[in-house]
Amino acid sequence: MYIVTATDNSYAKYLGVMLHSLLENIGEGTNPNIFIMERSLSIKNKMKLQKIVGRYNLKVEFITINDNDYRYSFPEVRYWPREAYYRILIPELLDKDISKVLYLDCDLIIREDISKLWNINIDDYFLAGVDEEAVDETRKEALSIPAKSIYFNSGVLLINLQKWRENNISSKVIQFIEDNPTIIKWPDQDALNAILYDKCLKLDPKWNYSIVIQKMIHIDNPAIVHFIGPNKLQNSKHPFKEEYFKYLNSSLWDQEK
What we know:
By secondary structure, the chain is α/β, with parallel strands linked by helices. Helix content is 32%, strand content 15%. Strands 3-2-1-4-7-6-8 form a seven-stranded mixed sheet. Strands 5-9 form a two-stranded antiparallel ribbon.
């Protein structure tokens, strides 16, 4: 199992909580390979993240990205850290013998064995993701996505790297970003959908629950909770706020100085 995520220093604590929740609930005998993409993560935060994962006898591989190594520049968007774009580069950053990865955002808690998601067959798809049922239809129209097609959230993605590489998907997504600066609202997510909306396996919404999805589809027991939006846990009414802080407190993050 290959798990990839990305962070900067401001999101490092969120990532620590996510990894702790993931490893607390993973099936016995499952030893995932964990990759963290970053460009300027402090040594202190790297040590904290490694310590959290090390409690489960696992190690983290940090992939440090130098933006100067790439010919393109990603647009800066408020509330959207540059590291969010790095999921587009995963096929280039991992060894070519890795054909499938699970990408996870930092601002999640995992409440169920992630192996169940990993084992979903995507041989015939380029990726799998959860449909954002509440997305404005004008967003699809702007991106030339048919109204009845899926628009997936890019925070949890099961990616078929083999198909991405064979079809130069990363280059196509990057080109879309560069060619459509006035159209894009949610940078990597809009571009990924514009290129892959008809090549995505629609996942059960329990694998990427958010309060936005909850307004459209009632989910009693989500497997992954995604704390979306700029306010995140400052919203005291979030139904999983207490559970998030349970994982935070047991992650030892706050105890490390």
